[in-house]
């Protein structure tokens, strides 16, 4: 006993005992039963419990449409010019029945994006946002190239992985 007192001071031993006691209670209650009010979890149990993100969280770039289903973008190129990493490429075009220019091609390279939100702030028509999709991992580099068409790389809907990772507001 004297050897233990020499090696481990009593204050440290008391702290370790208290930590071990609460660790055991929380460990045995995690994902098994309701946690009592005095035992709080400090980690989020994703994906069982939906994640709550900060309101200003910056996720993946999304191109928006208006009430008629038309793309809001009028090709002013403000987002393309202000982007510090030059990940946005827009190609203008004309559409019959529409006075303003229409994006024929709107490409976004998410792989190099730094999520600075300059593009969203510079857009005077509120046609793009950074959504709350936080899980952006993919198995292929090509999945980081987003455009206006395609199943997995469509800018209008969350990516296949992101269907399950969009945080609830």
Task: Describe the model.
It is elongated and about 90 Å long. It is built from four helices and five strands; from the N terminus they run ααβαββαββ. It folds into two domains: 1-43, no CATH class; 61-164, Alpha-Beta Plaits (2-Layer Sandwich). The relative contact order is 0.16. The model has no long low-confidence stretch (mean pLDDT 81). The strands form two sheets. It has a three-stranded antiparallel sheet with strand order 2-3-5, with no helix packed on it. The chain has a two-stranded antiparallel ribbon with strand order 1-4. The protein has helices at 2-7, 10-29, 78-82, 118-122; strands spanning 61-63, 88-93, 102-109, 128-130, 145-146. With 169 residues, it is an alpha+beta fold. A hairpin with an 8-residue loop joins strand 2 and strand 3 (102-109). This is 4Fe-4S ferredoxin-type domain-containing protein. Keywords: 4Fe-4S, Cell membrane, Iron, Iron-sulfur, Membrane, Metal-binding, NAD, Quinone, Repeat, Translocase, Ubiquinone. Residues 61-93, 102-133 form the 4Fe-4S ferredoxin-type domain.
